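Technical annex, item 7. During the second reporting period the consortium partners agreed on a shared format for inverse folding records so that results from different sites could be compared directly. Each record opens with the tokenized structure and is followed by the designed sequence. A conforming record, contributed by the partner at site C, is shown below for reference.
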């Protein structure tokens, strides 16, 4: 996934405008970059494994009349970068092709690269060899490939550039009779482009004819942002899965190790006694009335925060197919979104023809922050401090406002599961459950101040928590809990959340499941398997137990079924845990041995 951009000028391109397009493209990722510049002696392709602005300082534009490039969030391959060049074709692709492995055997050309985008160039080359028209390439690629595709494809020997997309994450505009393009309309509007429009059908442009394409790669990467997942049976054997005889509520399945739990004489817990049904939707007609003022005759009319997880994907389906809105999805990538999650984002946005705007943080920095906090945690393990490992994702809430400003769209519709309330994550820190709380996330000034005070007390036991990540943690939680939110609604306030229906619906989109678990919840989250391993090993339960308990209270499943499910869902997910620890640079064996040695809360 990346931000792509370019200018095709009648004379010399405006270097300042190109730099502006490049700066905005970095919002989508800065792990690697590429630039194409046409010169008198041919096309010059530069690829680098660092940010685009640094690359542009190294490349002279001269008197070029064409330049295009990308700033990439690395997915589906680290070793190969874009632009992809083969068979006289240059490809810059934003998106993920989820079926490229199936396409290669149908082509005459062998695969040479790891990156999925190569298949676009191979499809185009086969088509041209067979005598096909260059103008037909875009439609052919979109017919063969599944997943999101927004592409700039150049055939220099024929003097043609094609722009095409199947989800609208590509825009064109004009300025001084020159053609500009970018992944988002905001970048073009900022430059004063006219006739800014979304690309779905192929846009064709003439470019200088040359037979020569020169490619240069600048390698400077120190850290591997995509860990090579090498599984080891000896490591996997270190993961424990105790099945202790823990007293559980006789109505739900919450155990005696749940913070602040009490049982009555019949064995029913206070969480059950104080539970208020959450999955009781209001009439859908109310939401239709609420969103009516936001509807637009043309163009997108709402923003959907989109993780690629089960619930946000189902929510997007409802928003498009039932509510009949025209959304832009927004994804915040903080370094713990797995490729599985990204592929599901790609599937959904392609099938529903929905634009996806990505804001990618500094992935390496975010992972360094996690590593600093995990190092501190391992020195003084505390269940109430586990949540600091996921504090970096809270800027998700901050950047909703960024997307609102950039798109001019105020309405945002959320697909948060109403049954995800856990209580125990803050409970282990000493925060008692507020049974009147009707939102998934903790908020309120007094509650947050108390929470932060208790957190500071725990942090003092391991001073390593007072590191450079602290501001990132606190500012993210400010945006989540304190910043006033407006023009937003929760889709599951108006539609019943039903797990069977959710899974059946997502199956229609070939939604991908994880190979290491039977649950469909949090499988695109790189952190979940690790923190749930901690909770289960030390306390004998995970967020699966709280989730299934809520389902019992809602009458969705029986207690017996819940017990069977959590027995399976709480099993350690070795591949996911391995990926997580490799991503942040931690030794698997020493980390797991430390967790296994923590005193249990059960006998």
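Designed sequence (site C submission):
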């Amino acid at each position: 996934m990346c931000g792509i951009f370019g200018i095709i000028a009648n004379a010399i391109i405006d270097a300042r405008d190109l730099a502006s397009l490049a700066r905005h493209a970095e919002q989508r990722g800065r792990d690697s970059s590429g630039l194409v510049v046409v010169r008198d002696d041919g096309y010059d392709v530069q690829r680098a494994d660092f940010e685009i602005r640094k690359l542009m300082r190294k490349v002279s534009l001269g008197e070029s009349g064409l330049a295009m490039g990308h700033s990439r969030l690395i997915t589906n391959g680290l070793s190969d970068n874009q632009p992809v060049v083969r068979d006289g074709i240059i490809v810059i692709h934003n998106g993920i092709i989820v079926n490229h492995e199936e396409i290669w055997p149908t082509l005459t050309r062998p695969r040479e690269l790891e990156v999925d985008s190569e298949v676009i160039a191979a499809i185009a080359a086969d088509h041209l060899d067979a005598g096909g028209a260059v103008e037909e390439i875009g439609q052919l690629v979109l017919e063969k490939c599944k997943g999101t595709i927004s592409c700039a494809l150049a055939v220099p020997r024929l003097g043609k550039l094609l722009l095409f997309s199947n989800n609208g994450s590509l825009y064109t505009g004009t300025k001084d009779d020159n053609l500009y393009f970018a992944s988002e309309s905001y970048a073009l509007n900022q430059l004063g482009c006219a006739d800014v429009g979304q690309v779905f059908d192929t846009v064709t442009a003439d470019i200088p004819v040359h037979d020569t394409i020169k490619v240069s790669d600048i390698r400077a990467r120190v850290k591997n942002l995509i860990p090579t997942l090498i599984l080891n049976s000896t490591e996997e054997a270190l993961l424990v899965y105790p099945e202790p005889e823990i007293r559980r509520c006789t109505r739900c399945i919450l155990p005696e190790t749940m913070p602040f739990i009490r049982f009555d004489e019949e064995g029913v817990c206070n969480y059950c006694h104080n539970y208020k049904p959450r999955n009781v939707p209001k009439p859908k007609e109310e939401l239709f009335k609420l969103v009516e003022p936001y509807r637009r005759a043309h163009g997108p009319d709402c923003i959907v925060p989109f993780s690629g997880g089960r619930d946000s994907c189902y929510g997007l389906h409802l928003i498009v197919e039932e509510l009949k809105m025209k959304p832009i999805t927004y994804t915040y990538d903080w370094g713990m979104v797995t490729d599985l999650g990204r592929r599901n984002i790609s599937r959904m946005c392609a099938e529903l023809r929905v634009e996806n705007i990505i804001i990618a943080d500094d992935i390496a920095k975010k992972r360094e922050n996690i590593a600093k906090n995990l190092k501190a945690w391992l020195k003084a393990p505390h269940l109430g401090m586990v949540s600091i490992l996921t504090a970096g994702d809270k800027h998700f809430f901050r950047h909703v406002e960024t997307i609102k400003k950039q798109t001019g769209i105020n309405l945002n519709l959320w697909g948060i599961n109403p049954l995800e309330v856990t209580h125990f994550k803050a409970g282990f820190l000493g925060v008692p459950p507020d049974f009147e709380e009707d939102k998934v996330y903790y908020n309120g000034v007094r509650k947050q101040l108390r929470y932060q005070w208790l957190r500071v007390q725990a942090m003092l036991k391991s001073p390593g928590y007072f590191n450079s990540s602290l501001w990132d943690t606190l500012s993210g939680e400010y945006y989540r809990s304190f910043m006033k939110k407006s023009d937003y609604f929760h889709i599951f306030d108006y539609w019943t959340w039903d797990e069977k229906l959710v899974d059946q619906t997502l199956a229609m989109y070939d939604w991908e499941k994880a190979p290491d678990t039977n649950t469909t919840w949090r499988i695109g989250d790189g952190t979940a398997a690790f923190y749930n391993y901690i909770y289960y090993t030390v306390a004998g339960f995970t967020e699966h137990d709280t989730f299934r308990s809520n389902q019992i209270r809602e009458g969705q499943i029986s207690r017996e079924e819940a017990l069977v499910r959590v027995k399976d869902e709480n099993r350690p997910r070795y591949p996911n845990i391995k990926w997580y620890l490799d991503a942040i640079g931690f030794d698997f064996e020493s980390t797991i041995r430390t967790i296994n040695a923590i005193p249990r809360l059960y006998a």
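The CA atoms of residues 123 and 129 lie 10 Å apart. The first strand starts at residue 2 and ends at 8. All partners now use this format for quarterly exchanges.
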